[in-house]
């Protein structure tokens, strides 16, 4: 998958988690804009991991604050 | 609230500002007039199951004194003797001047209890997890752990440098998927608990340990809440489910069934003894006082022969679970799986109200709330003791009925 395809896949995964229908851009933050709590983060990350067959460790999650960073991280992890 | 108006304090932002939200939640709860559930004082302790709290004779249903060993006469005598003969404390690390005869004897008792080659005693169970996890899983290794793991396990992960990968609670498939994705050649440590203390549910260790081993992982199981009464010899859930021989490390504590304080790790790993030199939370802290290791060793040896007490503890757990279910309470598990029965509260306010109503009835239970609890639940956690009499359990059920109706939960 290229970055655009990854972007589209993640957008569709995010939808049910985006309860307030926030407009998603690269700078949308998970904790701030999307108001994800730790339980939501866990479920969301698990879905991303399963869709792309990757691991996003807690250590890596700590570096991911916004949507664009997540797409980049998945793109990178997928290439590994 | 005082009636003399206090001037509004204008405090600048400082390092404590990050706690403002927690302070506000707490103040809001206390302003409703409920007794602070997190500052109860036991004025006198009468037995493993009774104490005087706020001047009232109170049944204790929120301790981890599962086997009632705190007042065992042999245990107490051993502690007194050690105090007389070895003094009040060791004033030193296990690897320097802090290993006395008693520490060795305590480790010997653990080796016999678990039928394992190695035992290492730490100052607390918290430090045992902190030390073992952070030391054995290094940079580039992967820790695969249950998301509902105890704080000491998470802190062990945080202290180390490994990649930390949680999976959904007790979900074998989720665990296996993550194990499969670990990069080729990386070291793997799977961390599980026998009994999860918030809901009192047991892990499917039989399958999980098998899957972990199939993927070449080492397995650590925290059996803090099962020692002494689960498994044929009381070695825990891994023993009960027949997989203890495949578990690489068992972590335990003296602060629950053993009835004192301290922690340990037992293992059959041939190189395990090196831990004593490389594990910082073992090395850089003072060892347990002689009286504590003496009480622990005596208690552990008595737990090897505790079959009758164990049977009674299970009767108590079944009766309380069945009785609370019949009263209409929502419990953490649909059948009793351990000595913990968790009653799920609708919210923190009513949970605190119920907790207080029970205290007025003369019953102490544990109020547990986020972030310690899974799924942001507020829980009243009841933990049974082998020394609770059948009558006390009936009394407890009556108290729950009255308090539950008064607070409007049932
Ligand atoms: C699962 C688990 N592990 C470890 C510990 C820590 O034990 P200790 O009280 O000895 O520090 C506890 C107790 O709080 C626990 O519940």
What can you tell me about this protein's structure?
The complex is a heterodimer of chains A (80) and B (410). Chain A has a single domain, classed as Non-ribosomal Peptide Synthetase Peptidyl Carrier Protein, Chain A (Orthogonal Bundle). Helices cover 55% and strands 0% of the residues of chain A. Chain A has helices at 3-14, 38-52, 58-61, 67-79. In chain A, helix 1 (3-14) crosses helix 4 (67-79). In chain A, 21% of the residues are buried. The model of chain A has no long low-confidence stretch (mean pLDDT 94). By secondary structure, chain B is an alpha/beta fold. Chain B has two domains: 31-67 and 307-407, Aspartate Aminotransferase, domain 1; 73-303, Type I PLP-dependent aspartate aminotransferase-like (Major domain) (Aspartate Aminotransferase, domain 2). Chain B contains 14 helices and 16 strands. In chain B, strands 4-12-11-10-7-5-6 form a seven-stranded mixed sheet, sandwiched between helices. Chain B has a four-stranded mixed sheet with strand order 1-2-3-14. In chain B, 50% of the residues are buried. The A-B interface holds A 37-39, 42, 46, 49-50, 53-55, 57-60, 80 and B 142, 147, 157, 163-168, 174, 177-178, 181-183, 371, 375-376. Bound molecules: pyridoxal-5'-phosphate (PLP). Pyridoxal-5'-phosphate (PLP) is lined by residues 124-126, 129, 150, 152, 193, 197, 222, 224, 253, 255, 263 of chain B. Pyridoxal-5'-phosphate binds at residues 124-126, 129, 150, 152, 193, 197, 222, 224, 253, 255, 263 of chain B.
């Amino acid at each position: 998958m290229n970055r655009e395809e990854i972007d589209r896949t993640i957008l569709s995964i995010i939808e049910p988690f985006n309860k307030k229908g926030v407009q998603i851009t690269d700078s949308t933050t998970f904790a701030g804009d999307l108001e994800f709590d730790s339980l939501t983060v866990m479920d969301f990350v698990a879905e991303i991991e399963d869709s792309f067959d990757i691991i996003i460790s807690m250590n890596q999650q700590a570096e991911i604050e916004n949507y664009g960073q997540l797409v980049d991280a998945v793109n990178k992890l997928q290439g590994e | 609230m005082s009636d003399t108006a206090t001037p509004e304090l204008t405090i600048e932002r400082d390092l404590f500002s990050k706690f403002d939200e927690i302070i506000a939640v707490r103040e809001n709860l206390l302003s409703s007039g409920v007794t602070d559930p997190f500052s109860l004082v036991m004025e006198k302790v009468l037995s493993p199951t009774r104490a005087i709290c706020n001047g009232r004779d109170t049944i204790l249903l929120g301790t981890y004194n599962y086997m009632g060993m705190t007042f065992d006469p042999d245990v107490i005598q051993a502690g007194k003797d050690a105090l007389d003969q070895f003094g009040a404390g060791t004033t030193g690390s296990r690897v320097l001047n802090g290993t006395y005869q008693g520490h060795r004897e305590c480790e010997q008792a653990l080796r016999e209890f678990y039928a394992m080659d190695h035992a290492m005693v730490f100052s607390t169970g918290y430090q045992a997890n902190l030390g073992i996890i952070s030391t054995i899983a290094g940079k580039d290794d992967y820790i695969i752990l249950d998301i509902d793991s105890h704080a000491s396990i998470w802190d062990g992960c945080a202290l180390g440098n490994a990649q930390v990968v949680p999976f959904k609670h007790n979900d074998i498939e989720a665990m296996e998927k993550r194990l499969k994705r670990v990069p080729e050649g990386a070291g793997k440590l799977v961390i599980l608990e026998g009994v999860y203390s918030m809901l009192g549910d047991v892990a499917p260790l039989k399958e999980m340990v098998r899957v972990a081993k199939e993927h070449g992982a080492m397995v650590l199981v925290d059996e803090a809440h099962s020692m002494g009464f689960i498994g044929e010899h009381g070695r825990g859930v891994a023993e009960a489910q027949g997989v203890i021989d495949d578990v690489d490390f068992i972590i335990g504590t003296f602060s629950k069934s053993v009835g004192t304080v301290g922690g340990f790790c037992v293992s059959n790993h041939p190189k395990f003894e090196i831990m004593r030199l490389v594990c910082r939370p073992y090395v850089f802290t003072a060892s347990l006082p002689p009286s504590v290791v003496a009480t622990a060793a005596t208690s552990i040896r008595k737990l090897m022969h505790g079959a009758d007490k164990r049977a009674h503890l299970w009767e108590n757990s079944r009766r309380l679970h069945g009785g609370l279910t019949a009263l209409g309470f929502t419990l953490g598990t649909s059948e009793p799986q351990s000595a913990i029965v968790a009653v799920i509260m609708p919210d923190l306010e009513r949970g605190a109200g119920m907790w207080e109503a029970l205290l007025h009835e003369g019953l102490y239970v544990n109020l547990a709330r986020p972030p310690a609890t899974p799924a942001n639940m507020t829980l009243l956690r009841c933990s049974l003791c082998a020394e609770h009499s059948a009558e006390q359990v009936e009394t407890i059920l009556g108290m729950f009925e009255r308090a539950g109706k008064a607070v409007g939960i049932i």
